[in-house]
Amino acid sequence: xxxxxxxxxxxxxxxxxxxxxxxxxxxxxxxxxxxxxxxxxxxxxxxxxxxxxxxxxxxxxxxxxxxxxxxxxxxxxxxxxxxxxxxxxxxxxxxxxxxxxxxxxxxxxxxxxxxxxxxxxxxxxxxxxxxxxxxxxxxxxxxxxxxxxxxxxxxxxxxxxxxxxxxxxxxxxxxxxxxxxxxxxxxxxxxxxxxxxxxxxxxxxxxxxxxxxxxxxxxxxxxxxxxxxxxxxxxxxxxxxxxxxxxxxxxxxxxxxxxxxxxxxxxxxxxxxxxxxxxxxxxxxxxxxxxxxxxxxxxxxxxxxxxxxxxxxxxxxxxxxxx
Length: 323
Fold this sequence. Notes:
Layout: E1 3-18, E2 24-39, E3 43-47, H1 54-61, E4 69-74, E5 77-78, H2 84-91, E6 94-97, H3 111-116, H4 126-139, H5 156-168, E7 174-178, H6 186-203, E8 206-211, H7 214-220, E9 223-228, E10 231-237, H8 238-243, H9 248-255, H10 262-267, H11 298-302, E11 308-311, E12 314-316
Parallel strand pairs: 3-8, 3-9, 6-7, 7-8
Antiparallel strand pairs: 1-2, 1-4, 4-5, 9-10, 10-12, 11-12
Helix pairs in contact: 4-5, 5-6
């Protein structure tokens, strides 16, 4: 299966403070040499703690940020350093669903206006735009009488459906889902995930699904990447990763997932990581996870581990994992 989106050596650095001459005092390495690909019609789940760079990766892929270095291949074309004019044909094919449905919708616009906004310069007539909006509302599970309402009149799940409809308006091929369920009640989360899966099946969409919820990522993803402090530490097909987690950080993350069965929960071993997450402004030398890893050796402090293929399509960045 051919890939639609591919990141190669993606880096995103931000200056922190400036000298009198305008040079940055320090650099925050939000994303540091990350690579992966997303096949057409599939979902790539990106997981990790808050601040690990997941959202920055997603925003870079749709070129809300211009990467510091690396390549972003979209349908075989490197768009990493395209100008805004060059990006115009790609913009319609790439969209984003934001984390907070409360903040991502204009409170002064009706649902009809919000969904129609991406269609303003599409060349469609007003009647065609209205027909498209009605079809999108039906597609995401909302009702026709919702069109003239305002965002504050809806629940969180309904607002996120409005956001999904807006993302679908330009008929994209690729959508970045930036923690689209984290601000919703648990009872609503499954409904939104089921909607995304149904839309993917009907429209052949490709998703980057950014989340810290490993159980939900397992449900929706075909492939999964685990990030820590701006770096990819493990990447594999979803079944392979959850069957055989090799990186110590991945195992620690999974051990923190709540288990509904009390007996199984009592028998499971919770891995507690020592210390706090280091700052990406001044990350540890060598392996960035070494300061919290119970298995770290002297080599981990001296040499940064490469993301190596240790099993078919299973990549791990750890000196202690043998391929």
